[in-house]
Amino acid sequence: MAMPVLISAETVEKLLRYGELVPRLEVALGKFSSGKGEIVQPVRSVLAIEKYNGYLGVMPAYSAHDDVLATKIVAFYQRDQPSSIPAHQASVLLFDPEHGTLKAVMDGTVITEKRTAAVSAIATKFLKPVQADVLCILGSGAQAVSHYKIFTEMFSFKEVRVWGRTKENVDRFARTVRGPVRVCSSVKEAVLGADVIVTVTMATEPVLFAEWVKPGAHINAVGACRPDWRELDDTLMKSAVLYVDTREGAMKESGDVILSGVFGPYFCSLSQS
Ligand SMILES: NC(=O)C1=CN([C@@H]2O[C@H](COP(=O)(O)OP(=O)(O)OC[C@H]3O[C@@H](n4cnc5c(N)ncnc54)[C@H](O)[C@@H]3O)[C@@H](O)[C@H]2O)C=CC1
Ligand SMILES: O=C(O)C1=NCCCC1
């Protein structure tokens, strides 16, 4: 039997272009939300690695539409100190759907960075205010960088602001994106007047408070992906219209949804938890 093909992070980085990724994801999200079973993706199973403050998530999916069977395996860690090792590392296994033969093992870290940012960008395309001049990014890690890249590629913001917990991280962010950005010294300064907000921190307590958010602003709440993590406060959660990619996932994994007690019959399906 042939060995699976290995696809490195460098190759994924070169091949995975937002111009192709965004329209494909838009179709996939539509099919996933249609409820017709064209894309099957159960809520991921996550194992806690308590000794190291980490998690291992297994994320299988099958698209009957594309006849593609794959699983992402992602490890992610909460850290107090900056590290040269990414907080999230992933691999994607691609199988022949007819027999289950492993065809390829590819880097999933770059895929995670780009896929997540692309879904936020798609949600923003549909949900942002008509006049959206100011983008605010809270967090300054890998997702902050990928969100900056796609948001500045797809939209024409007049100003991009970033806030990060540590100066070291924010400086690294500014060096990496190499584009115009206003570094803010508080969340409030970054958020006031922003039309689109991206939260990509690993916070476990709310960092974004309703009182700072401009009415009608669109928020991509990305970071609180464990049931006991928070980024948005209760008032904001209760006053917002929520869009999620999967109700089941949001109710099992999103700390902002679970701990604010907002889940009920009013969810629409589109964006991410
Ligand atoms: N919803 C989704 O599909 C995905 C969600 N994520 C989540 O997005 C978040 C960001 O991921 P990455 O950028 O890859 O991580 P990262 O480790 O590269 O960056 C995390 C950032 O959050 C900051 N941070 C950590 N603790 C904080 C706290 N208590 N308050 C404020 N800031 C804090 C760090 O200083 C760093 O700037 C993580 O929570 C991650 O789990 C990541 C990938 C996909
Ligand atoms: O969807 C993903 O990929 C991830 N979500 C939460 C954190 C780990 C990666």
UniProtKB/TrEMBL annotation:
Signal peptide: none annotated. Belongs to the ornithine cyclodeaminase/mu-crystallin family. Its EC number is 1.5.1.1, 1.5.1.25. GO terms for molecular function: pyrroline-2-carboxylate reductase activity; thiomorpholine-carboxylate dehydrogenase activity; thyroid hormone binding. One of its GO terms (cellular component) is cytoplasm. It catalyses: L-proline + NAD(+) = 1-pyrroline-2-carboxylate + NADH + H(+); (S)-cystathionine ketimine + NADPH + 2 H(+) = (3R,5S)-2,3,5,6,7-pentahydro-1,4-thiazepine-3,5-dicarboxylate + NADP(+); (S)-cystathionine ketimine + NADH + 2 H(+) = (3R,5S)-2,3,5,6,7-pentahydro-1,4-thiazepine-3,5-dicarboxylate + NAD(+); Delta(2)-thiazoline-2-carboxylate + NADPH + 2 H(+) = L-thiazolidine-2-carboxylate + NADP(+). Homodimer. Binds the thyroid hormone triiodothyronine (T3); T3 binding inhibits enzymatic activity. This is Ketimine reductase mu-crystallin. Gene3D superfamilies: NAD(P)-binding Rossmann-like Domain, ornithine cyclodeaminase, domain 1. GO terms for biological process: thyroid hormone metabolic process. Pfam families: OCD_Mu_crystall. InterPro entries: NAD(P)-bd_dom_sf (IPR036291), ODC_Mu_crystall (IPR003462), ODC_N (IPR023401).
